[in-house]
Amino acid sequence: MDNFFLDFRDPLFGLILFFVIIFIITFSSYWWGRYKNQEDSKNLDKFLDGFRSLPTQDELGILIKSKELSEKSWLLLADAYYKNGDYEKSIEIYNEIIKVFVNIDSKDTLFLLGRTYFKAGFLERSKQIFLEILKRSPRTPQALEYLLLVYENLRDYKGALDVLEPLEMLEIDVSKEYNYLKALMILNDTTLLNEQKAEQLLEIYTKTGQLTYLIFEFLFRVDAKLAWNYLPKGKPEYVSDILWYLPLKDVNLDIISKNKYLWELYSARGDIALCSGSKVFELDVLIQLHGKAEATLNFEYICEKCKHSYPFAFYRCTHCHAIDTLRIEFGLIKDNYRNFSEENNSFQ
């Protein structure tokens, strides 16, 4: 029986004791860690419960004044609400931060507040905040760029043009913005006839080669013959959707016959039969079908700069605010309009 007991001076006894101590420490650390995680989760849930329903402005002010959380933590919370589209909560937090943390430079927080007002559609409030920032720090390009967007959305194009001057002084290229604002001024000028607008827009286009979609959308609407004469020979794909939906009476077959892409586009639409296929998959499918299937083109609009997609055409991307970056991509959908037309014709 003595073989089953170890003397404390035995080296094996020390080794066993060593592993027992390690086990106790590891076991204790594991359960202490689990306990702390549970406590932290409870505290976090308790904190977030207070924001699942919007506190009143007074309650929010009390929470921020308590300074239990740093300014950075409140800014992160406001940004989270902004990204989730909860602009009301975000605005209230920014406003209270500016009131409470008075000893800290509030320019950055003011900018975030102005940006949130802009995103929420409070354009006048946004304008006043950006003007206040520029009054304190005139050389703030981000504030100038957002002020430009505010003026544009307010259709105050003269004010927007005035903003370009300080941006240019900061060595920022504003040539595209200038041409874009001039084009918007022309389109919204009620004193000009459509013929005058078309002439001035074409002057911008011939000089710069910019704003293709904006200009040709207007031209094809008011004077299709003039639009065909100035249609960019190498880039008709920039206005593919406009050409696709163009009434047959406004289609210029002489110009189409001189451009391979236009052959394919209108062969796919079924107006002509000048080609037997296309390198563009969607056009090739429609050409091969020869109108035997109820299919047509659907268009998606991509910003070449930020790659955001939209179901509608745009002149300035609403996400990255880039101008003239629209790219059109094709899709195939069922042609319900054809069914509707055939049913009406049979009824008559």
Indicate the topology:
Elements: H1 11-52, H2 57-65, H3 71-83, H4 87-100, H5 107-120, H6 123-136, H7 141-153, H8 157-169, H9 175-187, H10 194-208, H11 212-222, H12 224-230, H13 240-244, H14 253-256, H15 260-269, H16 281-289, E1 295-303, E2 309-310, E3 326-334, H17 336-347
Antiparallel strand pairs: 1-2, 1-3
Give me the side-by-side strand order of the main sheet.
2-1-3
Beta-strand residue percentage: 5-15%
Rounded to an integer in angstroms, the radius of gyration calculated over CA atoms is: 33 Å
Mean pLDDT: 84
Largest sheet: 3 strands, antiparallel
Which stretches are poorly predicted, pLDDT < 50 over at least 5 residues? Answer: 339-348
Number of strands: 3
Question: N- to C-terminal separation?
Answer: 111 Å
Q: Per the principal axes of the C-alpha atoms, what is the gross shape? A: flat
State the helical fraction. 55-70%
Summarize the helix and strand pattern as letters: HHHHHHHHHHHHHHHHEEEH
Q: Count up the helices.
A: 17
- Helix and strand content put the structural class at mainly alpha
Features of the shown structure:
single chain; 348 residues; mainly alpha; three-stranded antiparallel β-sheet; 17 helices; 3 strands; 6% strand; flat; disordered C terminus
Molecular structure report:
This protein is mainly alpha-helical. The protein contains 17 helices and 3 strands. The chain has helices spanning 11-52, 57-65, 71-83, 87-100, 107-120, 123-136, 141-153, 157-169, 175-187, 194-208, 212-222, 224-230, 240-244, 253-256, 260-269, 281-289, 336-347, and strands at 295-303, 309-310, 326-334. The protein has a 3-stranded antiparallel β-sheet. A hairpin with a 5-residue loop joins β1 (295-303) and β2 (309-310). α5 runs antiparallel to α6, α10 (194-208) packs antiparallel against α11 and α15 crosses α16. The longest helix has 42 residues, at 11-52. The radius of gyration is 33 Å and the shape is flat.
